[in-house]
TrEMBL record, chain A:
<keyword id="KW-1133">Transmembrane helix</keyword>
<comment type="similarity">
    <text>Belongs to the CPA3 antiporters (TC 2.A.63) subunit B family.</text>
</comment>
<feature type="transmembrane region" description="Helical">
    <location>
        <begin position="107"/>
        <end position="132"/>
    </location>
</feature>
<keyword id="KW-1003">Cell membrane</keyword>
<feature type="transmembrane region" description="Helical">
    <location>
        <begin position="31"/>
        <end position="51"/>
    </location>
</feature>
<keyword id="KW-0472">Membrane</keyword>
<dbReference type="InterPro" id="IPR007182">
    <property type="entry name" value="MnhB"/>
</dbReference>
<protein>
    <submittedName>
        <fullName>Sodium:proton antiporter</fullName>
    </submittedName>
</protein>
<feature type="domain" description="Na+/H+ antiporter MnhB subunit-related protein">
    <location>
        <begin position="8"/>
        <end position="130"/>
    </location>
</feature>
Automatic annotation (TrEMBL), chain B:
<feature type="transmembrane region" description="Helical">
    <location>
        <begin position="559"/>
        <end position="577"/>
    </location>
</feature>
<dbReference type="InterPro" id="IPR046806">
    <property type="entry name" value="MrpA_C/MbhE"/>
</dbReference>
<feature type="transmembrane region" description="Helical">
    <location>
        <begin position="6"/>
        <end position="22"/>
    </location>
</feature>
<feature type="transmembrane region" description="Helical">
    <location>
        <begin position="73"/>
        <end position="92"/>
    </location>
</feature>
<feature type="transmembrane region" description="Helical">
    <location>
        <begin position="616"/>
        <end position="636"/>
    </location>
</feature>
<dbReference type="InterPro" id="IPR001750">
    <property type="entry name" value="ND/Mrp_TM"/>
</dbReference>
<feature type="transmembrane region" description="Helical">
    <location>
        <begin position="365"/>
        <end position="387"/>
    </location>
</feature>
<dbReference type="Pfam" id="PF13244">
    <property type="entry name" value="MbhD"/>
</dbReference>
<keyword id="KW-0472">Membrane</keyword>
Length: 147, 762
């Protein structure tokens, strides 16, 4: 009998990633934020690793480039934090500044905090996926070498 | 404003341009880099004609920090020196490095790496001399230290080279930390790091002696002065272009430069200057004597550099206007000699004076050019070197006969060891060797030509030296430095004549005194600072091995070694912090039942971990604690935190389980067995850590101010366009903390990746 778990988990990947994205985008107004978004996306990929294995999961580009993504995330975080310094603001000045009119609808706000949170998301995602990938690789190697 | 940064930008661009040129063709790196350096030099010269200027870029205005750059005579002179010698040395390396790399058995591609490092060093040096801010001075100083570590240890397969690089890093790095302490002390004393402001305030309120000594130590370490001098001869393990650049015109010059830049602070501190004077004379003596007996060519030159920077230090300590001129006149002479011995080593394969002789027949151009360089170093007339000794004698004449005698002996020793080096290389019985490549000789010829031009037309030097001297003087007044040949019996001329006579006499009688001097110096080297460094290193090694064995032998001890000090620290903090109502027990009502239940569940799970039978159960119990706490957050109306903890807890449970699969079973079993039998000290350390964490949390929670933490934060979050308070705290109020934490996460990621990669290989 074929298990229903592999097809189901494969179906779950994209919805989970979309929910993660929504966590990120509405983080400024409602429950969510970059950190849980990254952790959720990482979990979604983790499920793929457990169910379909390393080879299958690494077909996704996001998974192969998880570690560089974390680097991009750090660049985003550092950039948002320190680029305002060049314009004479203090570090981690976010725009629009308090008092300036904001833009957005519902829980979604156009704000440089979004870029910052996006960076957080990429870093957490990169960390989780890379560690899983390394574990999977090491376990596979052990299996080969084992008795 | 943009005018001032042009040379800096051009010198910063050298290394990347050379890198890309090297990607295209390795040989192109040197030419592109040198061309860029020459362009930077041209831009610098053009700017210097525009007169002094400053540039202030605000950096963190709320902290009063800004990036400040200056363009004055001092920075111009040193930057020109760094750029011109740098460009020549880079071209020289084009001819030198392929041969060197082939001998080391390394690919020719590595030349690009070398050139990029050299050019980066040049950029760091230009940065160092143009900044006008104490903190930036420190940063630029450390940049030069780091790049010099990479350059000195460039032959990474050679243990001697690596040890020499480490020694120079430890010494110049440690002394630059002392410099940093001095800079911080000054910054706190005057409330600013900007040098002009510091000088202005120092005029009414002199700097503290401690801070000045710290600054001086940093400078002395960099300039390889006694007692930090011994790193320099060891650093000769580097490829010759590195020695000829770092140890003539760049790195060692940085120390003396710092003293000149900060001279207005030192001027009123007569005691500190007297100390510097003594160190300068001591370095002169030690360096000159060692140079008289050293056998490898590069060592002779290294000891000579120590001695020559001793002279420069004496000039600085005396407040002479000639100090910048001295350093600038010394640089081309010393660089020419270094490049000469590098060329000789390449064509002959020999490194010691006792192994070569009579090369003047095979290498006539090199012999002639290096003779000019040597004459410059020994301060013979018609070379620029003559004037470096003239300003030196001029400064000493004002101090009195004892100083004059010391200067005379020093200059005599210089002539003696320079003659010994040149004659050892080119004089004596003929040896035939293949001709040196033109590119190896050309930079020496250019340097020698500059030495001659400076000697024949001293008028050219007056304006830059005066500008440099004026920039380092406190009042910014004009300098009255004069450079000309005077054919009369003034004291400077008599001293120079005496020094030449002494030098010639020493050289003529060298066979009689060399063996004795060698024995004496060998005897003293057993008690010198170099010996102290070895002993210190050995003892530190033993200490770290001992600690390592103590700590690593047992996992529980290792954990305790982190937890117990942390716990004790926490308790100490609680003990010394004066707080009223330190611990308050709040009230519990019916509304809190759900919270209490969740907390009870968490505590029960935590207690159960003590009796967990295997690691998988342990992981499950720990995640149970985490999930219960997430529940607590959910009940406490903190959905954001609850969501994050659920996600993080899930991730970590799964990763933990995955990690268990990677660990060998035997180790797991042993750890399990040990954990079931706690020892007495385990209980004590657990007690300390637990009690400290408990008391700290209780104290913190007793002092929650609902208004400040709750209402105010919510209001501020609304203003910051982020109604989600957690998000506002993370990204806005505590944004800088988040940046730091994320850097730590990324560092952890790198660590995990490389550790597991190692494991995969092993």
């Amino acid at each position: 009998m074929r298990s229903f778990v592999p097809p189901l988990s494969r179906m779950l990947l994209w919805p989970s990633l979309i929910i993660a994205l929504s966590f990120w985008l509405k983080g400024g107004g409602e429950v969510g934020g970059g950190f849980p978004a990254g952790a959720l996306a990482g979990l979604a990929v983790l499920l793929q690793y457990v169910v379909t294995g390393r080879e299958q999961t690494r077909r996704y580009v996001v998974v192969r480039y998880a570690a560089p993504l974390a680097g991009v995330g750090l660049l985003l975080v550092v950039g948002t934090a320190f680029l305002p310094v060049l314009a004479g603001y203090t570090p981690v000045s976010l725009f629009p500044r308090p008092g300036q009119p904001g833009m957005g609808a519902g829980a979604f706000h156009l704000h440089t905090a979004l870029i910052f949170e996006g960076g957080l998301m990429l870093i957490v995602f990169g960390l989780v996926v890379t560690v899983i990938d390394r574990f999977a690789l090491s376990t596979a190697n052990q299996g080969d070498e084992g008795p | 404003m943009p005018v001032l940064v042009l040379p800096i930008l051009l010198s910063l661009a050298c290394a990347p341009l050379a890198y890309f040129a090297g990607r295209w063709r390795p040989g192109a790196a040197a030419w592109v880099g040198a061309a860029c350096a020459v362009a930077a030099l041209a831009a610098l010269c053009w700017e210097l004609t525009l007169g002094p200027a400053r540039l202030v870029l605000p950096w963190a205005p709320t902290w009063g920090l800004s990036l400040e750059f200056t363009r004055d005579g001092l920075s111009g002179l040193y930057a020109a020196m760094a750029l011109s010698v740098g460009a020549l040395v880079v071209l020289y390396s084009r001819a030198y490095m392929p041969h060197h790399l082939a001998e080391e058995g390394r690919p020719a591609r590595d030349e690009v790496r070398f050139q990029v490092l050299m050019l980066s060093f040049m950029a760091a040096m230009v940065l160092l001399v143009t900044v006008d801010d104490l903190l930036l001075l420190f940063i630029a100083l450390d940049l030069t230290t780091i790049v010099s570590y990479l350059l000195i240890g460039f032959d990474r397969d050679d243990p001697e080279s690596r040890a020499a690089a480490l020694l120079s890093l430890v010494l110049t790095g440690a002394t630059s930390v002392v410099f940093f302490a001095g800079a911080m002390a000054l910054g706190l004393q005057y409330g600013t790091f900007s040098l002009p402001l510091v000088f202005e305030r120092a005029a009414t309120q002199p700097a503290s002696t401690g801070a000045l000594v710290c600054l001086a130590v940093g400078a002395l370490g960099k300039s390889a002065q006694v007692p930090f001098h011994f790193w320099l001869p060891r650093a000769m393990a580097a490829p010759t272009p590195v020695s000829s650049y770092l140890h003539s015109a760049a790195m060692v010059a940085a120390g003396v430069f710092l003293l000149q830049r900060l001279y207005p602070l030192f001027e009123p501190a007569v005691a500190v200057r007297d100390g510097l004077l003594a160190i300068g004379f001591l370095s002169m003596t030690v360096g000159s004597l060692m140079a008289l007996v050293a056998d490898p060519f590069k060592r002779v030159l290294a000891y000579s550099t120590i001695a020559q920077y001793g002279y420069a230090l004496v000039l600085v300590a005396l407040g002479s206007e000639g100090a910048p001129l001295y350093v600038a006149a010394h640089a081309p002479c010393k660089a020419a000699l270094f490049l000469t011995v590098g060329a000789i080593t390449q064509v002959t394969g020999k490194k010691k004076l006792s192994e070569v002789s009579g090369l003047r027949h095979s290498l006539p151009v090199l012999a002639g050019a290096s003779a000019v360089g040597a004459a410059g170093l020994a301060a013979l007339p018609l070379t620029v070197g003559f004037f470096k000794d003239e300003v030196f004698f001029h400064a000493l004449v004002e101090k009195g006969p004892l100083f004059m005698a010391a200067g005379l002996v020093g200059a005599g020793l210089t002539l003696a060891y320079t003659l010994r080096l040149w004659w050892g290389l080119f004089g004596g019985p003929r040896q035939d060797v293949p001709a040196a490549p033109r590119l190896l000789v050309a930079p020496v010829v250019v340097l020698a030509a500059s030495v001659l031009v400076g000697g024949l037309l001293p008028g050219l030097l007056v304006a830059p030296s005066r500008a440099a001297a004026a920039a380092s003087m406190v009042h910014g007044g004009a300098s009255s430095l004069e450079l000309a040949y005077h054919l009369d019996a003034r004291a400077e001329n008599l001293l120079a004549l005496g020094a030449w006579a002494l030098g010639a006499a020493l050289f003529a009688t060298r066979l009689t005194w060399t063996p004795m001097l060698t024995r004496v110096l060998e005897g003293t080297s057993k008690v010198g600072p170099a010996h102290g460094y070895r002993v210190l290193l050995h003892q530190l090694d033993r200490l770290s091995t001992w600690l390592h064995e103590k700590e690593v032998r047992d996992l529980r001890d290792r954990v305790a070694s982190v937890l117990v000090p942390t716990g004790l620290l926490g308790m100490t903090v609680l003990w010394v912090t004066p707080l009223r109502d330190r611990f308050i027990a709040g009230s519990v009502g019916w509304a809190d039942v759900t919270l209490v239940m969740a907390l009870a569940f968490a505590s029960a799970a935590a207690l159960a971990t003590l009796r967990a039978r295997n690691h998988l159960v342990l992981v499950m119990l720990i995640s149970c604690v985490g999930f219960s706490l997430a529940m607590v957050f959910a009940f406490a109306a903190a959905p954001d935190v609850a969501l994050t903890s659920v996600l993080v807890e899930t991730t970590f449970t799964l990763l933990f389980a995955g990690l268990l699969a990677l660990l060998p079973d035997r180790r797991l079993e042993r750890a399990q067995k040990e954990a079931q039998q706690p020892r007495g000290r385990d209980r004590i350390s657990a007690g300390i850590a637990g009690a400290s964490a408990f008391l700290l949390s209780w104290s913190a929670l007793s002092h929650l101010q609902a208004d400040r933490v709750g209402t105010q934060t919510v209001k501020l979050a609304e203003a910051a366009h982020s109604p989600n308070v957690v998000a506002a705290v993370l990204t806005d109020f505590r944004g800088l903390d988040t940046v730091g934490e994320m850097s730590v996460v990324l560092a952890a990621l790198l660590g995990v990746t490389s550790l597991l990669k190692l494991k995969g290989k092993g």
